[in-house]
Input
Amino acid sequence: MAMTWRRAIPVVGALGLIAYVVIAGTAPLFLSPAALSLLFLTLYYVCLAGAWNFFSGFSGYINFGFVLFVGLGMYGSVIGFVDYKMGLIPGYLTGGLVSAIVAAVIGYPLLRIRGAYFAISMLALAEGARVFISTKYLTPLTRGGAGMPVLAGTLNQKYYAIFLLAVCIVLATLYFARSYYGLSLIAVREDEAAASGLAVNTTAVKVSVFVVSAFFAGTAGGIQATFLHYIEPFAAFDIKYTMLSIVMAMFGGLGTVLGAVIGAVTLQLISDYVWLHLGQANITVFGLVMVCLVIWMPDGVLVRLKEMGILPKTRWI
Amino acid sequence: MTTEGPILEIHDVRKSFGGVHALAGCGFSVGEGEIVGLIGPNGSGKTTLFNTIVGYLPLDGGRILYRGEDVTGLPPYQIARKGIGRTFQVTRIFPKMTLLENVTLPTGNAAANERAHELLEFVGLADLRDEYASDLSFGQQRLLSIIQVLMLDPGLILLDEPAAGVSPVMQKKLLELIHYLNEDGRTFLIIEHNMDVVMNNCERVVVLSMGEKISEGSPDEVRRDEAVLTAYFGA
Output
């Protein structure tokens, strides 16, 4: 009995995932715009949690200023659309590129510091960016606190953009997790000095993966900005994006391929359900979920299942 | 093995931590193909010397040459790529990576499995290759850390107390492995507190005290050296 139960988990999980991908991939054909918007949000969080996990889940450098890259991506894209009349895809990629460039500049000095110091520095940079965006120096570009409205693309186009990005991030993670770079970054998480003694160029690995993670976050931010039709500093650099990305990635499984998908979908569903039935009490329920998570599965569902031997200890999952 | 040219030359290296002179002008060389023991009382600078050789600690003064090439100040990953591998006093494997991943990491190619499989087979860990390294016993982790270093194809291997804290059976296995690899052309510099291990396995011994070399020679010569006795037991 116990044996069949253990075997059922991977099968049910795989079927659930396939069903989700099929439904998400064909949703615009049969869902109402309201339902499609809900699904859009889930996919947006798959992208964010996936992008966060891509660097922090593998490296153990917990990025508490992740929203920096989301917000910069939003501004990069929106400025591209509004001021430079860019097409949809170039505009989104511009957002990603802006974040990637900033990540490359700050990554080199910042990724030398570890643990709480890295987390606090990133947090400070994200807050700083939010304030800087609204100062008079950048107002000509960003319109300061007044914000920027944006009209680009149809709902279906934006939906497919976020769906494609989510698929790209998951496939990139799959490739990365099994590559030398992925292995090196996991080794950095486990013991950075030992890794460098075994010929791993830790700085190069950290900085380059940090840049890719920022690119994904910035592109997702750009798509979200067109979905919201309007951005201003507080909305673009909302710390909620950082927190949810971390919680979702941690719930699903740090340093795994599918953890971000499982975390984003599950927590988004729980959050919607609880909000619907308990209103303001949803925060309490969410908090309880977090407490249970930290006690029983500190590294997330997938990592726990691998440790229990229910899933193989492979980098494919 | 016979001694050819020096594989490692240490010239007058200095390293201080605040007012503590961990290395106070220490120098010696290691010949190609030797097994050299590095001994000395606690705090004499042995591990600090290892840390400077592999680039973990910047030197305050002096030079380190590997096969005639100055490697002073290079980052650790470059020194590793040149062929110096080291293990740690407290074994540092990667706990949440599988054994196979632990072993393939140093090759720079996640898919380079053949040699990794051979080495895992060689030390009797092949059946556990898909398990996490955290599941291994202490002695097995020690073996794993040595074959990790071998994946660098190192000319020089620095071992920090390889025999400490493992069972006599595992100790014997480790020493056999060291001699086998030495026959294969690898040079060893070994920090060890167990004098039987040093006396029976090293061709030459270097003794450090207070960050300086105080004696050097065959195990017998060193054992009879007054300076060594003074350093260990006081005047």
